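[Q] Does anyone have a clean structure-token version of this?
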Amino acid sequence: MTRTLRVAVPAFLIMLALILAGSLGAVNAKKSHAEGDRQGEVHTEAAETFKAIPSTFLDVGAECSPLTAKWNKKAGLKKSGLILEKGCTTGTSAAAGADIDGEHGIVLTQLGFDYNGYCEAGAPRFNVYTEAFTAGYFVGCASGTHTDLGNGWTRVRFREEDFLPFGGAEPFRYSNTVVDEMEIILDEEGRVVLDNIAINSYQIDKK
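[A] Here you go.
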């Protein structure tokens, strides 16, 4: 099922953050942190399981084709892979991605994925929200530690210093950041296949 991505941070703010951080590329962000009766709810490592639910966003009046977010059983490194494609210009208000399910309340200890295809500073990226729609972090594919897996595939593991804060968030620290929500976004023109989406000790390899 395709759902609508909730893209909340204007691209120009992410561009500014990347420039200030000495990076290049266009980016965009969303939400994080636990609120109300959900505040303080923290998952244990043993209980963690996650899903990546394909999603797309297309602004009113915008046109973009193809705009694809789907799992394919034969597209991955070994089996299933998450195909993300934005066939229109980066400046078009459209995005392909995936909502991460099961993330609320977790404390991050690891984040990354395997990819084949487009990989730049701004996309594909994780948007990690710690305060709903207002604060958190984004981290783009070109950052992190890259390991060649062969056959066009590369493994990325993001370091603490790769996370760019927005909305007044403190510098990112593993084992010290409680997640409200998280998503993967491709809002630059290109096509990529993701596999083994690594969140802490769990790897998502299908929907």
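[Q] Thanks! Anything notable?
[A] Residues 8-46 have pLDDT under 50 and may be disordered.
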